[in-house]
Amino acid sequence: MEKSKEPSGILKALAFILALLLVISMPLALLSFDVWRVVFNPPVVKQFITDEAVSSNLLPVALGWFSERRAQERVAKGEALSGVNEPDIVLLLSYLNFDDWKKIKTELLTNDFVTHLVSVTVDGTYAWIDSSDKVPKITWELQPFIDRVRSENGKNAVLAAYNKLPKCTDPEIADFLGRLSKAPPGVQVLYNLCLFPNPWHDDQVQDYVDALQGVVKNVPPKFALTEEILKVATGGSTSPDALKKQARDIRTMAMWAGAVPLVLVLLIVLVVVRNVNALGRWVGIPLVVGGLITLLPTLVYSSIITSVLSSGVLGTTPEIIKQEAINVITRAADLIFQPMMIQAIIVMVVGALLVAWMFIASRKTTTQTTK
């Protein structure tokens, strides 16, 4: 039987380079493809954000941030005497546990309302990428939220927080009375964040309810998110058109990244594969190695994310917020790395089968030669 002609040394050298590129590109190509599969998939993004907004602890933290901003605005507008000397509303967060925030969120934010916010924002953003619009068209319907806060649910939310306050001490009552005596006419004095006894108890509760209603008065029935962002933007170096172009370019490159290993395999086959032995050696082994390298980050990504975020971006964040943020980011990474793990295993199995085929074919050839 006539043996297939062996490729030249130059072709083998070229095949080696292609095989090396295949090993290197495999994890990068699959990672890019899986990022595209998740990030540029509106239904997946919408479902993930909605689930996190409804079930995670980050939304209550965002409400705390809003409360802090409101407290700062009261000081700036002269509604309160001083953000330093008067009780800081953020202190209230330390009295509330997860169940308290879940109750407050249930009272104020229905799942339907949260779903609406996420759906409109995600759909508007992805539609903008493929449109000629300068900015995304995102308008939130806030009337359901306004109605909810103005109803008994708003008072229930206030009471959920109020009932977690500790009882006032004599120095705290004296502090409040001292600030009250020094306040100019018409300037509201905030109660200390503690449970005041009679005769201040009912007034304190009503004060907190009125404060919440005051915030709602400033909430419009419809909120054009993008337009408001543009109003307060300071004019960054990246324009919306540039961001859109970058998004399109990233989407295109990531979408086609998965084709790179396939092209390299095809080139290797054309350049050097003349028999089963060459197929196992030049394709099978690189697939096993590339699949193994791809598999490694899928086994340790959770630990890496925790380490990087804890020592970097979230290094100075309070522990409870840091942990919840890490959990959310890790769950987002699961959408990318868990399918990538399956893909890596499939690549390794295909490579191992080709290598096994190579050994079986070599053994048969050896046996036939011996006979």
Can you describe this structure?
- The protein is mainly alpha-helical and 371 residues long.
- The protein is 73% helix and 2% strand.
- It has helices spanning 9-39, 42-55, 58-76, 98-108, 111-129, 143-150, 152-162, 170-182, 201-217, 225-232, 240-257, 259-272, 276-311, 319-370; strands at residues 139-141, 222-224.
- A two-stranded antiparallel ribbon has the order 1-2.
- The protein starts with 8 loop residues before the first helix and ends with a helix.
Strand order of the largest sheet: 1-2
Q: What is the terminal-to-terminal distance?
A: 14 Å
Proportion of residues in β-strands: under 5%
The biggest sheet amounts to: 2 strands, antiparallel
The whole-number mean of residue pLDDT values reads 81
The 3D shape can be described as elongated
Could you spell the SSE succession in H and E letters?
A: HHHHHEHHHHEHHHHH
Total beta-strand segments: 2
Which segments are poorly predicted (pLDDT under 50) over 5 or more consecutive residues?
A: 80-90
Assign the structural class, choosing from mainly alpha, mainly beta, alpha/beta, alpha+beta, or little secondary structure.
Answer: mainly alpha
Number of helices: 14
Task: Report the C-alpha radius of gyration, rounded.
Answer: 31 Å
Helix content: over 70%
What's the arrangement of secondary structure elements?
Blueprint: H1 9-39, H2 42-55, H3 58-76, H4 98-108, H5 111-129, E1 139-141, H6 143-150, H7 152-162, H8 170-182, H9 201-217, E2 222-224, H10 225-232, H11 240-257, H12 259-272, H13 276-311, H14 319-370
Antiparallel strand pairs: 1-2
